[in-house]
Amino acid sequence: MRNLKLQYCNELDAVAHPRRLLLQPELNGGASDTSFVVADNKVYAVQESGDVPPKVIADLPDIVGAEFLQLDNAICVASGAGEVILVDPQTGATSEGTFCDVGIESMAWSPNQEVVAFVTRTHNVVLMTSTFDVIAEQPLDAELAADQQFVNVGWGKKETQFHGSEGKQAAKQTASDSTVSHDVQELKQDVSISWRGDGAFFVVSFVAAQLGRTFKVYDSEGKLHHTAEKSANLKDAVVWRPTGNWIAVPQQFPNKSTIALFEKNGLRHRELVLPFDLHDEPVVQLRWSEDSDILAIRTATKEEQRVYLYTIGNYHWYLKQVLIFEQTDPLALIHWDTRVGAEHALHILKESGKHLVYRWAFAVDRNDAVVGVIDGKRLLLTDFDEAIVPPPMSQRVLNPHSYINVFTSHNTTMCLYTSCGQIYLFENIRQLSEEHGRPKTLMPDAELSRLQLANLTIFSKHYLLATHSSAGSTRLLLLSYKDEVNEQGEPCYRVQSSLRINGLVNAVAVASHAMDKFYVQTVNNGHTYEVSLKADKTLKMERTYVQLAQPADQIDWVISDGFISDGNTGSLVTLRNQHLLHMDGHLIGEDVTSYCVVGNYLIYTQINAMHFVRLKDRRQVASRNIERGAKLVTAVDHKARVVLQLPRGNLEAICPRVLVLELVGGLLNAKKYQKAMQMARKQRINLNIIFDHDVEKFVVSVDDFLREIKESQWLCLFLSELQNEDFTKGMYSSNYDAAKQIYPSDYRVDQKVEYVCRLLLRQMNEEDKRFRMPVITAYVKLGCLEPALQLIWKEKKVDASLADQLLQYLLYLVDVNDLYNVALGTYDFGLVLFVAQKSQKDPKEFLPYLNELKALPVDYRKFRIDDHLKKYASALSHLASCGEEHYDEASEFIRKHGLYTDGLAIYREHKEFQKTIYVAYADHLRASAKLDNASIMYERGGELQQALLSAKHTLDWQRVLVLAKKLGEPLDQVAQSLVGPLQQQGRHMEAYELVKEHCDDRKRQLEVLLEGHLYSRAIYMAGLQDEDVLEKIAPALLAYGTQLHSSLQADLELFLDYKQRLLDIRQRQEKYGVGNIDANVDLEEVDLLSDTTSLHSSRYSGTSRGTGKTFRSSKNRRKHQRKLFSLKPGNPFEDIALIDALHNHVTKIAQQQQPVRDTCKALLQLANAADADPLAAALQREFKTLLQVVNVALDEIWTPELLGNGLMAQHLTGPNVDYLALQKEQRYALISPLKRFKPQLIVMDEQLEILQ
């Protein structure tokens, strides 16, 4: 669906009578402006600027071939006399390459310039290396081996075969008729060589003595591989498509002229039918573009010469461009540019020395949904709003009388520019038929008939824009055609005004919002200029709109929302040939293959993905996968349709979710709920968006919603798809801004289903038959099946058939067994039978059970039904209504189902039975090890002794004493029995309080304080009673201080030992790797690592195990933990164990701050003890040193890689993964997440000043 758009035609001056053109490759990132032309047995260096005259760098008679060698920076020239020389293009110095004494007919270098092929005057094929060493030599008329000859398998007779367009006469031809009709000597004896793009094969076209014109295929080692099948009337031009699939040769038939396309094996594959006769218009040159996209055919007649440009798509050849040149200045040669990025530049040299550089680019010519495809004298039009017509077919065909070169359109006006310079104007592009499709034909005036126009664009109602380039500058032409006539009185178009710009303009974009501005892009410097049309119809350059590092091949002016806002006049979208997409100079995407603007979105494709960019904020909002190589053709905004063309040429139409949501949102804003739901259902959009799009608006407009949606099934579908989720923040967040979503005050997203259902239930009238099914659906979504059943049961009394339909629908939504249980829970046996009859239940199953229930008393019947339905709380309430004779059954029912709380509430008035429930509840709590709660329940149930025992087990000594007093037990004895257990649990202060209150023995009280190391409290108590502190407390305090001092020293030594071991292990890991620290790794311990971890040892090669230990049992888990955190030296996970031990050790040290401080303070209070002050100072100093050492070492132990922060995590995934870091991360994952962070060591500043 793409056309060839002429970007510019640059007119340069070269050398007269040129025969070959040599282009230099790109130098230092830029193209050289010097080219080399072979003409009149001389080689000229020509400057593109034209300021410097051509310079002769070589003079050699009868030049038959020339090539610019990139690696040698030299020009290889071959003469007919057999001389091959190398010429330095800078100095003109020559050196001999090789010499052929029999003369050279033709020379061709391989594309990689590693091999050169010669055909000598004696018709020998000679292959040489780049240093002119002979690889092979053999005659052209050499035959293939017998096993390589074509074999006739004899399928059918010639008379019975179908001969297509050749007609029945072809069946009557004899073998002699199909041979060459002309004398071989009358044919052109030229020899042509063409290489395949990869340099592996080349083809030689020549005239054979018996066959006439034919060709042979050789490989790069000079071996003959294939010869062409016998074909009559082949012409001398031959060219091999660079991609290698076809060899193109002109061939003439009695009824048609073609470009025959042969395969490598010499068999004819297909053909390109030419629109002219080769006898009247012979082919002079055939050339493929370097990317194999365009085939150029140069022809010549007595009056003129032409260049035809063909492309192929979906197995159809399209004639895209026809260039016509007068024989007054005939063409000398055509040559495709071989430089990177310039594959679509065609160099045409004339005999007069004129050098024309045509630069084309592929572009889709679209007008909204209408796409036009040029095919010779036909314009194929398809309106994708109406139908998807795959190429080469089309919806409509226009047939002007000339070859079409340009198709452009704007709004309803369409313009065709032909090869002869005529312009056809069509006024209504969407109503082109026999009656409405008569165009207005415009002839060029005398000036324009001599110019080659490029970038032809409709500018306004009566004006066209075009460009014309020459000598490195460009004229912007404003063409007028209103009321213009030429000298012959024919309607014409002429130049209204012009503006010259330095540089070559290769793209033009018209600002569609105001038809008085347009933008032009120059190749030389990447500038994009803004040009305006003044009131006097003159053009003026306003400013440089944007500057790109490299020029773009395609530019478009886009406006968001289709109008101009105060702060936004639009944006300029540019696509460079390096596949970089920019918007106003800001990079949007890389590797972009095509783009298209649809509504508020810029859509662009990459190799296998499509992306959507919102124009107003240039943010990519969505992406989706597409078939590899697909490109955008056009888009239909109001149908959310995007048309893609796949590499093979067929079309694919899709409706992207982003565009569909944009349309659905617009319909919802306009309260067109019917159309919005219709589109959402068609495009499979979740119907939650109808509510989530604008919650407040939906709540206010719920009546409009119910009025718009006529079909009750659609309402049911909407209700059934409701979910407790805001889809504008989840699935469809690409089209919504979460910050702008406003909810009603009584709305919560996690209660959305209930909110919407109740909202609709309030508005839907149950009496309206249209709402019966939606009401039932709403009840089902709310989980209220009983009201739905009651609604159907009520309807049965009015319309039995409708009730049956409603019940069938309800059974579709709900499982029949669940619905039967709900009906049974209504205690209405008529409703139960109604539901059971519509189900698949066997009457033998439910009728006996229902009859049994009918025979029971009402309350006990309800109890049995609720018990059957597992509604135990309701069943217990019905059982309580049955009286005292069911107390035993109620007690057992409560124990069985754990209904203690419900039972206490239901039997609140039954005091005695309530105590029984209390005791049962207490037994249950005690069995669950909840002794504190059990003690309270026993007390309420009157079991004080059991309450006392439960309180004792929890050491709730205050409650124990209260219960003991109620039971009349001696409080002192009970208190003494609690002191020991409290001390065992470290609750020394509580034990002291208990002894102090219930024991007058001062000595016992002091012993409790000293055993709990509560020395400050002991000194306080002794001081109040005037007792000798030194005699009773000092020995124990001094001994504890000495022990604590030794413990701190041991903690410091242990910390330093663990730390040094960890640092040594890490040093070995850095040197030898994680898996090679210890060769004696136990194979059982390898399972402690994940399957992807590699441990290399002499016994284990690192092969991953598919199944490892699961450690599911608690015993195995504990064993695994002991093995993993073993501090035994040599453990393969010793570093992990040390980190775990260090974390525990530092935590223990941090918790000792208060005990150490209290001990030092107590020692200072022993003023008369000689050893107290030195011991306190040593203790404080030792602990301070310990804290400083630990605090300094924390960052050394807990490194960033152990923390696993984001900076390190970026090396654990992706193509550049750091496997060493990944292996370490897997090892550290075995550590508890809390212990991977260094412990918080908060140092207290309240040190005793007198000990400093």
Automatic annotation (TrEMBL):
Gene Ontology annotations for the cellular component aspect, listed alphabetically: cytosol; elongator holoenzyme complex; nucleus
Region of interest (Disordered), residue spans: 1097-1121
Principal place of residence: cytoplasm
Cell location: Cytoplasm; Nucleus
BP GO annotations: tRNA wobble base 5-methoxycarbonylmethyl-2-thiouridinylation
Ranges of residues in domain ELP1 three-helical bundle: 1032-1197
Compositional bias ranges of the Basic residues kind: 1112-1121
Domain ELP1 N-terminal second beta-propeller: 373-633
Pathway(s) per entry: tRNA modification; 5-methoxycarbonylmethyl-2-thiouridine-tRNA biosynthesis
Keyword annotations: Cytoplasm, Nucleus, tRNA processing
Limits of the ELP1 first N-terminal beta-propeller domain: 1-338
Entries under InterPro entries matching the protein: A-sol_ELP1 (IPR056167), Beta-prop_ELP1_1st (IPR056164), Beta-prop_ELP1_2nd (IPR056165), Elp1 (IPR006849), HB_ELP1 (IPR056169), TPR_ELP1 (IPR056166), WD40/YVTN_repeat-like_dom_sf (IPR015943)
Record's protein name: Elongator complex protein 1
